[in-house]
Amino acid sequence: MRALVICLLAPAALAASVMLACRTSTSPPAAAAAGVVRPRSHDAVEATVASADGVPIRYHSEGSGEPALVFIHGWCGDRGHWAEQVARFSGDREVITLDLAGHGESGRERSAWTIESLGEDVRAVVLSLDLRRVILVGHGLGGAVALAAAERLQGRVVAVVGIDKFYDVERRWNSALVQVLMASWETDFVAAAKQYLDDELPKDCDSALRDRLQAQLVAAPREIALALMRANFDYDLAAAFERVHVPIRAINTNLPIDLAAGRSHAADFAAVDLVAMDLGHYPMLTAPDLFDQKLAETLAGLGR
After folding, report:
1. CATH number, domain at 190?
2. By CB distance 3.0 to 4.6 Å, which of 15, 88, 144, 297 could disulfide with 77?
3. pTM
4. Are 90 and 26 in contact (CB under 8 A)?
5. In the beta sheet, which residues pair with residue 271?
6. What is the residue range of 217's domain?
7. Interval 172-228: pLDDT, tens
């Protein structure tokens, strides 16, 4: 059962958010994208921009330098998942985090919840800040969103990094198994969330972190959460790899990487396999120092 849960849930990026405080802004929050001045210092800026369908998307930006890093959270997460990485990486480059529609402080009024619509959220933020060279870093579901965004930002995205996502891009999920999993979440969302976290967090995970993740996941808007879960199961990663003509990297912590599968659909694909270290699905939260080290090494390999 645990293998089934990992296989189905890990790529769905059921990453509940931790309410970590963002660094205190030294600039007043902007009310709309039109009033945003792109930051050229280490000062932080919080602002909102409309996505392609008008849904307001909240984001945080600080630091300066290219390529900028855009961190994309997973399912039922928010930009607070990346608080440690903002602090760590904004010293020498611009770092942006955002709440995808239906999450955090962003809007929830959307007619169709798809990976592509979330990709438009990222595109709106990148364009609002006029970021010319960006690396998209996506956790779980955010990895698929990063691919969708990269497809819509040709010429601006220089690389995509997936966190616990691109382990086998050719895997297509059996519809009967997906229906069983969806039914368990639809029947008892709270119980399914607890079981998921039991499977996806290290056994020695800090109890306070576990409790915060549980609370945030349970508080997610159910209709949106379930729609995005299904959308992520249906998303064709292999086809997306072929449409994104930039280097793709993976840092995986739950399942081994199938490099051959990735490389058959992307000209430049490489991965870091940390499965043996038992970090769980949330390495940026459970082992931030190690995760930051591996991400820094990955970025260094991509160059400036």
Report:
1. 3.40.50.1820
2. 15
3. 0.87
4. no
5. 250
6. 2-302
7. 888 999 999 999 999 999 999 999 999 999 999 999 999 999 999 999 999 999 999
